[in-house]
Design brief:
Layout: H1 5-16, E1 23-25, H2 43-53, E2 58-60, H3 73-83, H4 89-103
Parallel strand pairs: 1-2
Helix pairs in contact: 1-2
């Protein structure tokens, strides 16, 4: 909501140094302006996560039902789909499930 990407990135980089730490892409809309967010608002945050953790240590999370005051489940999925549309098919599979299976030992 405040657009503090640089401060957030600096804090997140500390965690990215540890190979055993993954980042769940979740809670995006709950931290945004609930009534006026645009998909493009999330691009710098998703890009930052990808830069720091790569495609092998990211996991999708809908944040459902907590997201509901600001977005539906489908809208949350659309945000992640559009902000990661440039990823390869294999990278998308990692984001949407394969990485979670590996991380949680499912």
């Amino acid at each position: 909501k405040e657009g503090l990407v640089d401060e957030w990135k600096k804090d997140l980089q500390v965690f990215g140094r540890y190979e055993n730490v993954y980042c769940k892409i979740a809670g995006l809309v709950t931290e945004a302006d609930w009534k006026a967010w645009q998909i493009a608002d999330f691009t710098p945050y998703v890009s930052t996560v990808l830069d720091i953790f790569g495609t092998d240590r990211i996991i999708f999370g809908s944040d459902w039902p907590v997201c509901l005051p600001s977005a539906s489940y489908d809208q949350v999925c659309e945000i992640v789909e559009k902000t990661t549309s440039f990823l390869s098919g294999e990278e998308k599979e990692k984001l949407w499930g394969t990485n979670a299976v590996r991380f949680y030992n499912l």
